[in-house]
Structures are given as structure tokens and as C-alpha cells.
Amino acid sequence: MKIKSDRHYFSVYGRAILPLLIFITQSCSLIKDIEKPQAADLFYQLLLGSGANRIGVVSSDLGPSGRFSVMHPEGVAVPFFTSIHSDAMARYFNGRVFIVNRLGRDGIQVLDPQSAYLTVSEYSTGNASNPHDIVVTANGKGYISLYGKNNILVVQPESGAVIGSVSLAAYSDPDGYPEVSGLHAEGNRVFAAVQRLDRNDPFSTWPPVAGYPSLLVEIDAGSDTIVAAHAMPFSNPFSKLRRVDLFGQPHLVMACPSWLGYNFRIDGAVIAFNLNTNSFTTLYRETAAGGDILDVVIKNDSVGYASILFQDFSTAIQRFNPTTGARTGDLFFAPNWGGYVAGMLLTDDGRLYLGDSSYTEPGISIYDTNAGDLKITPLPVPIGLRPTDLVYIP
């Protein structure tokens, strides 16, 4: 398997843990995909999988195949899957699951939770467009970030009919691309994380560009025009943009590792953007974490959890205090030969779901953050392939 630097494989984590992927392909056989579900599997899918209050799991064989499956919040996996791309992420809006199939498939796949997660539509975002995220606004418009282009596509989210486009060419770095990744819709505003990385650097792998700070671009969803570009205090917004009520105000929280992976430096942080004041706050620095911060979820003003990649490519999940910025504990650690975490989800009832991509027993681990981070699952709940993303389906 050829490893590509432009994140073809393994969702957003591919660039950060490229050496781990190389180790896997050299030392382990790829997990083989299973056959298309038969009638009995579809029965279980309809009986157990359909409906509300499910955890959606995106998983991959790190090769040509990917799956979307679901599990009950208690940790019971439903024995079925929907075939998707090997490099994908999932979002839920308005009764539909939207699978963002990235470079190599370049499109959106729409699943119906009430009909056994069957694919109800699929549409292309353009050859080599490399879609990275999708959001749906309150008025029903869909916005798709395109990592391989310099615009955001505006569509009817279920059919894919193109409504328009928002150009971000003015925010490109010298390689000609702005590297637009995460999106968030807030009322009549759409926020886009603009990384501004140098994909042509001959000495480093997609590093930040000096003099081109990462941006949180604000778009008016009524007119599809850019109204502001907020410069970030740290580079490379790498995680999803997660909305959290923090310090009594609505915020967008994100992990910004700046230089990471082969480019390892202790220079990033978890930051929060106040949606009322349009200002940033630093919550957790890499100087406290000791490694690159790849992902983050926040429970409240005093408890957050961060996914860490260390210089030797070992990984950990750390607990921290968003108010003080102090590291307060460790939930998970994997040596560089033992796996990694890809996908974090914190539900309103305090359960923390981690995509545990162990080399021998990949699956979903569940912790109760209301009971001292008690691990509910002695072993990861098996889902067949290696998890790469998680989504809550209400």
C-alpha cells in the first residue's frame, strides 16, 4: 500500500502518524473486509440498528475499504455495516448521516438511520476535490470544505445539487491552497477552519507557513459572503470544530498542533473561540501535554480530554482542566507499537467513547466521566475494522 502525504488514508490522522501506518503495513496484515450483508444481517440492521440514540462508527482497513456501523450507547455493536470509503468522516444533520468520502472517492454519501442506514443518495464534489467536512445550516443549505480546492461548495445537502460556492482563494498560502478543513454552522453563520499549510515544502510534511496564520473564516449563510477572518493564536486547526458552552458562553473548541508528526514541535494548543465576542482563549498547551494535541472534547469548565501524539509516536488520552490549563490525569497510553486513538466522542450523559485502533483488538472503548473516568468496557467493543471517526445519532 502506498502511503500518501495528502491524507488519502486514515482520515485526518494519517499525516500525524504516518510512521505508524508504515509500521502497520510492514508488520501486520490488513484487516480484511467482510462480505456484503445478507438478508439476516439486514434484519438485525433494521431491528437493532435503526432508530435513535446510537453511536455511529467510521472504520477502515487502511487500504481500499471502509465501513459505517452503529453500536448502542452501552457498548453493544450491531452486526452490520454500510460500505464507505477507506478515508472518511461522519456528520449527523436533520435525520440523516452524511459520510464525507475523501480523496479517491471525493463525494458525499447520505444514509437514512430509519431505513437500516441504507445509502439514499451519493454525489461527487469533483475529481481530486478531497472533501473534508460538511455542515447543514438551519435554512437547509449544505456547506462542504474541499481540501484540494480553494473554495467551499454550497449544495442542497441530500441531493448534492449545487447552489453556489464561497471562494477562499484570497486566504491561500504560497502553494495556492488555503487547506480548508473543519466547519461549523451557528445560526446564520458558517465558520471554516483554514489551516494554511505548505504542501510543497521539500523538507517537511505539510508544515505551517511563516507569515500566514491559520484562520477561522466567518461566512454569512444568507449571502454566502465572507464577513470576517479571525487569526488564530496557534496554527493548524486539526480536529473537528466542537461547540461547547464554556465559562458561561458558547465556544468553538479545536486542537491546533501547529508542527506535528515528523515535524514534531511543542508549539500548539487547544483553543476556544467565543461565538459572542469573536475572541480566542487558550485552554491547554502542548507544553503541559508533552506532545502534539490532535483532538479534544470538553465536558465542562474544569474537565476536558485531549488526544496526544508524542515524539516517539506513542499516543495517550489526557484529562486536563480548561480553566487552569493543567494536566490532571491519563486515561489511555499506547506505545508506538501498540496502537493509537482515532475518534473521540463525549455524550451528554458523560460517556467518553474512544476509537481504539489497537493492532490486535481494535474497537470502541467507553469511559464513564461521571464515575472518575471508570472504564466501562474491559476490552474494546469489536467493530471489525480500525475505527477512525465517531458520531452521535440522537
The CATH class of the domain at 125-231 is identified as Mainly Beta
Q: How much of the residues is beta strand, in percent?
A: 35-45%
pLDDT averaged over residues: 90
Largest β sheet strand count, sense and barrel closure: 4 strands, antiparallel
**CA-based shape:** globular
Low-confidence runs of at least 5 consecutive residues: 1-13, 17-38
Estimated structural class:
mainly beta
Which fold name fills CATH's third level, the topology of the domain at 125-231? Thrombin, subunit H
Q: What gyration radius follows from the Cα positions, in whole Å? A: 19 Å
Distance from first to last alpha carbon: 37 Å
Query: How many E-type strands?
Result: 28
For the largest sheet, list the strands in their spatial order: 3-2-1-28
Question: Helix fraction?
Answer: under 10%
| Total number of helices | 4
Shape-level CATH architecture of the domain at 125-231: Beta Barrel
Task: Provide a descriptive summary of the structure in words.
With 394 residues, the protein is mainly beta. It has a domain of 107 residues: Thrombin, subunit H, CATH 2.40.10. It is 7% helix and 44% strand. A 4-stranded antiparallel beta sheet has the order 3-2-1-28, with no helix packed on it. A hairpin with a 2-residue loop joins strand 16 and strand 17. The chain is globular and about 50 Å long. The N terminus is likely disordered.
